[in-house]
């Protein structure tokens, strides 16, 4: 009984603390006004996280996590030379902090209303839930970057092949780049279009292509972008030969990546299969024990 009272007291304190954060953090509501409802339906809760990161030094953008999120936001949201990177980093961090505290309050309050072993089971499941919420929020941008990087790499061999073909037809690298960028839709084509817009705005070719490589977050594409820059600096005489070589290499890399993704999908399917098997074994075991009790 005492442990339930303790859990209820802890849950009440965290709940009151969270409500105070929401009330005091309402001054930051202007930061979420323009967010769409789709994908940010919980945006009314972000104010608690904003208040914490502005008031608590070890939760600010200068902390290790804050710097990590800033670096990810620079890659994921490069528009306007990355001027809005801090906005997005703070947004994801505010959501993570807010939801983590909210789930923590719910866990302790729920555990206080349970009986027997369920008190500790609820607390254990809740701790796992809080960790899952925090981990998901803290790594959300990193997961988006990884997803975009993989999508870019899968389509990259086709991009290089098109560039090689157009350069072989005596188009300049800028003309070929623009043609390929607007030939299809997809993450890598969107980033190529951003680079084309940069070139149209008098950004040097080297800077535009370098930024493209960085935004893909793919080592292979960054290496490709660096070699293009080097060839362009030498006059582009070896560009066609280089593109042909890259097309062959990227084709092999794409096949390897597809096989790897197939293995990962098979591994993910193994988890639910194992859980189902454990569930069946548990049902059989419970039935067997019940029959033993009846026979006794």
Descriptive terms for the model:
single chain; mainly alpha; Receptor-associated Protein
Descriptive notes:
The protein is mostly helical. The chain folds into two domains: 2-32 and 41-138, no CATH class; 147-255, Receptor-associated Protein, CATH 1.20.81. Helices cover 80% and strands 0% of the residues. It has helices at 2-24, 46-55, 64-76, 79-82, 85-112, 117-138, 140-168, 173-181, 187-200, 205-216, 219-233, 239-295. It starts with a helix and ends with a helix.
Put simply, the count of helices is: 12
| Mean pLDDT over the residues | 82
The computed structural class is mainly alpha
Please bin the fraction of helical residues. over 70%
What's the story with the biggest beta sheet? none
């Amino acid at each position: 009984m005492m442990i339930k009272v303790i859990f209820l007291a802890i849950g009440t304190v965290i709940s009151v603390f969270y409500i105070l954060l929401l009330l005091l953090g309402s001054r930051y509501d202007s930061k979420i006004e323009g967010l769409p409802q789709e994908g940010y339906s919980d945006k009314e809760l972000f104010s608690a996280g904003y208040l914490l990161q502005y008031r608590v030094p070890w939760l600010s953008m200068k902390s290790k996590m804050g710097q990590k999120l800033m670096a990810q936001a620079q890659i994921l949201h490069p528009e306007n030379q990355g001027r809005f990177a801090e906005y997005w980093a703070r947004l994801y961090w505010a959501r993570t902090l807010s939801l983590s505290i909210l789930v923590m309050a719910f866990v302790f309050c729920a555990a206080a209303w349970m009986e027997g072993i369920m008190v500790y089971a609820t607390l254990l499941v809740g701790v796992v839930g809080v960790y899952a919420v925090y981990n998901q929020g803290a790594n959300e941008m990193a997961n988006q970057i990884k997803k975009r990087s993989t999508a870019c790499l899968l389509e990259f061999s086709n991009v290089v092949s098109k560039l090689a073909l157009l350069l072989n037809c005596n188009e300049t690298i800028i003309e070929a780049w623009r043609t390929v960028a607007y030939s299809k839709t997809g993450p890598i084509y969107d980033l190529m279009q951003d680079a084309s817009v940069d070139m149209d705005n008098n950004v040097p070719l080297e800077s535009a292509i370098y930024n493209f490589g960085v935004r893909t977050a793919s080592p292979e594409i960054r290496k490709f972008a660096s070699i293009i820059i080097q060839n362009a600096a030498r006059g582009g005489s070896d560009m066609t030969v280089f593109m042909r070589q890259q097309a062959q290499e990227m084709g092999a890399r794409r096949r390897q990546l597809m096989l790897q993704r197939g293995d990962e999908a098979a591994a993910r399917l193994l988890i639910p299969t194992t859980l189902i098997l454990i569930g069946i074994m548990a049902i059989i075991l419970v039935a067997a024990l019940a029959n033993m009790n009846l026979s006794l």
